[in-house]
Design a protein that fits this description.
With 539 residues, the chain is α+β, with helices and mostly antiparallel strands. The chain has 19 helices and 14 strands. It has 3 domains: 91 residues, no CATH class; 247 residues, DD-peptidase/beta-lactamase superfamily (Beta-lactamase, 3-Layer(aba) Sandwich); 164 residues, Nuclear Transport Factor 2, Chain: A (Roll). The radius of gyration is 30 Å and the shape is flat.
Length: 539
C-alpha cells in the first residue's frame, strides 16, 4: 500500500512539473513558424487576398545583412519612388560642388525643393532637379544613379533604361547605401521620415519610426513604398504592387509583420550586433540621429491565439487533477479540501506563468525614483553636459547635440538654441511596473519662427548694403546678388533678430518615458523630446 501511495505522489509531482512547463512549450510551438520570412509574407498575402504574382518585395536587415525577396529581380514601374535616388544624386553633387545652386538661393533653398520632392512628392520640382543636375536627360540620370542601385553603368540593362522601371533588389541596395553612408546624403532620411505619416507603410504602424517614399499611379493600379524602418535592428523594406486587388492596408500590414519579425530575431538570447545611430543634419543648427524605438508589443490577436495552448493544457491539468483527487479521497480517505486547494494553487501558478510569458511583467519592485533620472538627464542637456545626458539615455548613445555646424550662421543659431533650453517637471511621475512617465514643461528656441523673422530682416539688410556700396560690388553680371553679399545680409539679419531671442522661445509640454533596465531608470527619447531638442523643426 505504501509503495502504491509513493507511485501516486510521483505521478502528482510529474503533473505539477508538466503544468509549470506549459508556457515554455507553448512559446517554442508558437515562435518556430513565425520566424520563417516566406511563411510570414505568404500569410499576409493570403489574409488580404493578394496574389504573389502582383507583388515584388524585398527585405534586408541593415545590421546582420539577412535578406529575402519575392519576385525580387522582376522590373516594375516605381512611380514616385525614383525620387529617392534622384535626391541622393542631387544632394551628393551639391555636396561635391558639381552644381552651383547660388543662382537659385535668393529665391528658394535646395532643402525647400528636396522637401517638396520627398514629402509632397512634387513631380514639377523633381523635373526641375533633373533639369538642373542632369540637363533634363533622363537616361543620364539613370546612368549616374545606377551604382546606387547596385547596377553597373555599362551593363546590358543600362543600354535600355526602360521608363522608370526598377527591381525590389535594386531599391534595397539603394536604401542600404543611404543608411550605411548617410554622410554622403545629409538630410534625406530625416526628410523621408516626414513624408505621408498616415499612408502606405505608416497607415497602421505608429510604433516604429519609418523613413519612407511611397509611389503610386491612379491609386488603384500601382501602389509602391520603400522604407528604412528603425526597429531594434534597422531594416530596409521595398514593396511594389500592381492591380486593383492590393491596398495600403495590406502594405502597412506587411511592413508591421516585417518589423515584428525583426524584433523577434533581435531579441533572441543569442548576442547580435548593436547598430550605431548615424546622426545627419536636420538644419544648419541641429543634428538628430535616426531613432531606435523600444521593441513592440505582440499583436492582440496573436497573443490570444498563442494563449489557447497553455489555457487548454491548464484546463486539462485541472480536470485530470480533480479526478485524481477524488480517487484519492474515495480509495484512501484523504482530506479533499487540502488536496483541492493545492490543485487550485498549482493551476493559478501556471496561469501566472503563462500570463507573464505573453503579457510581460506581472509584478515588479524597481529601485530608485524615475523622476530623479529624468531630472538628471534634463539638467545635463540644459548645461551642455552631453556625456552625462547620454548616460541617462537607454536608446541613444549620441543625439548629435555636441557638434556645432561649420558655418558662422549655423554656429550662431546652434548657440542660441542651446542657450534657450530650460525645463520644469510639471507633474507627478507615473510608474507602471518597469515603465514610467514624467510630465515635463520644456522651453526651446522655435527655429521656424526664427527663420521667418530672419527672412524678413534679410531683405532690409540687403537694402542697407545696396545703399552703401557700388553696384558692381553688390550684383553680378546677371544682376543678381553676389553670393558673399547674400551671406553677409543673412548673417547680419540673424544677428539682429537674435538680439532678443526670447521673442522666439516656445514652451511645450510632453510626457518623458522611462524604462527600468540594468538596475536603474533610463530615459527613452520619444519624438516630442527630439522635436524640442531640434528647435521644433523635426519629428
Amino acid at each position: 500500500m505504501k509503495a502504491f501511495q509513493k507511485i501516486l505522489s510521483m505521478i502528482a509531482a510529474l503533473l505539477l512539473c508538466l503544468g509549470v512547463c506549459v508556457p515554455a512549450f507553448a512559446d517554442d510551438m508558437d515562435s518556430s513558424p513565425e520566424e520563417d520570412w516566406d511563411q510570414i509574407t505568404a500569410a499576409v498575402l493570403e489574409a488580404y487576398g493578394v496574389s504573389p504574382s502582383n507583388v515584388r518585395a524585398g527585405y534586408r536587415n541593415l545590421v546582420t545583412g539577412e535578406e529575402h525577396y519575392l519576385n525580387g529581380d522582376e522590373y516594375t514601374i516605381a512611380a514616385s519612388m525614383f525620387k529617392v535616388p534622384l535626391c541622393m544624386a542631387c544632394t551628393e553633387k551639391l555636396q561635391n560642388g558639381d552644381v552651383d545652386w547660388s543662382v537659385y538661393e535668393q529665391y528658394f533653398s535646395y532643402k525647400d525643393v528636396q522637401d517638396q520632392v520627398l514629402i509632397e512628392s512634387s513631380n514639377e520640382q523633381a523635373s526641375f532637379l533633373k533639369d538642373v543636375f542632369f540637363g533634363g536627360d533622363y537616361n543620364q540620370f539613370r546612368i549616374e544613379t545606377a551604382p546606387y542601385m547596385g547596377v553597373e553603368p555599362g551593363s546590358e540593362r543600362m543600354e535600355d533604361t526602360m521608363y522608370n522601371e526598377y527591381t525590389a533588389r535594386e531599391f534595397i541596395n539603394c536604401l542600404s547605401l543611404l543608411y550605411n553612408e548617410s554622410e554622403r546624403f545629409p538630410g534625406i532620411i530625416e526628410t523621408m521620415q516626414q513624408a505621408m505619416t498616415d499612408r502606405f507603410f505608416k497607415i497602421n504602424e505608429p510604433r516604429f519610426r519609418i523613413a519612407h517614399k511611397p509611389g503610386w499611379i491612379s491609386e488603384d493600379m500601382i501602389l509602391n513604398d520603400c522604407a528604412i524602418c528603425y526597429t531594434t535592428q534597422p531594416i530596409a523594406l521595398v514593396l511594389f504592387t500592381r492591380g486593383g486587388s492590393t491596398s495600403e492596408e495590406f502594405m502597412s500590414a506587411w511592413c508591421t509583420a516585417m518589423c515584428e519579425y525583426t524584433e523577434r530575431l533581435a531579441n533572441k538570447p543569442a548576442p547580435t550586433p548593436e547598430p550605431t545611430p548615424v546622426p545627419t543634419p536636420v538644419s544648419a543648427a541641429v543634428v538628430t540621429p535616426a531613432p531606435t524605438p523600444a521593441p513592440a508589443a505582440a499583436a492582440p490577436d496573436r497573443v490570444m491565439l498563442s494563449m489557447i495552448v497553455p489555457a487548454a493544457a491548464i484546463g486539462a491539468f485541472l480536470l485530470f487533477g480533480l479526478i485524481f483527487v477524488i480517487v484519492l479521497c474515495v480509495k484512501y480517505r484523504t482530506h479533499f479540501v487540502g488536496l483541492f486547494l493545492a490543485l487550485l494553487l498549482s493551476a493559478a501558478g501556471m496561469l501566472l506563468a503563462a500570463a507573464g510569458t505573453y503579457y510581460g511583467t506581472v509584478y515588479a519592485m524597481p529601485n530608485g525614483n524615475p523622476a530623479d533620472s529624468a531630472a538628471r538627464f534634463l539638467d545635463a542637456v540644459c548645461v551642455g553636459d552631453y556625456p552625462a545626458a547620454y548616460a541617462e539615455l537607454r536608446d541613444y548613445s549620441d543625439l548629435g547635440l555636441a557638434e556645432a555646424p561649420a558655418s558662422p550662421a549655423g554656429q550662431r543659431v546652434y548657440e542660441a538654441l542651446h542657450d534657450s533650453f530650460a525645463y520644469t517637471l510639471s507633474g507627478e511621475c507615473r510608474t507602471d511596473k518597469l515603465e514610467a512617465s514624467q510630465p515635463v514643461r520644456f522651453t526651446y528656441l522655435d527655429l521656424k519662427r526664427l527663420e521667418d523673422a530672419v527672412a524678413a530682416e534679410t531683405q532690409h539688410q540687403a537694402e542697407l548694403i545696396v545703399q552703401s556700396r557700388p553696384t558692381s560690388e553688390v550684383y553680378d553680371e546677371n544682376k543678381r546678388y553676389r553670393p558673399e553679399v547674400a551671406d553677409e545680409a543673412y548673417l547680419a539679419a540673424l544677428n539682429a533678430v537674435l538680439q532678443t531671442p526670447q521673442n522666439y522661445y516656445y514652451e511645450t509640454e510632453f510626457e518623458l518615458p522611462l524604462a527600468y533596465a540594468d538596475g536603474r531608470w533610463q530615459v527613452l527619447a520619444n519624438p516630442a523630446l527630439l522635436r524640442a531638442l531640434a528647435g521644433g523643426i523635426a519629428y
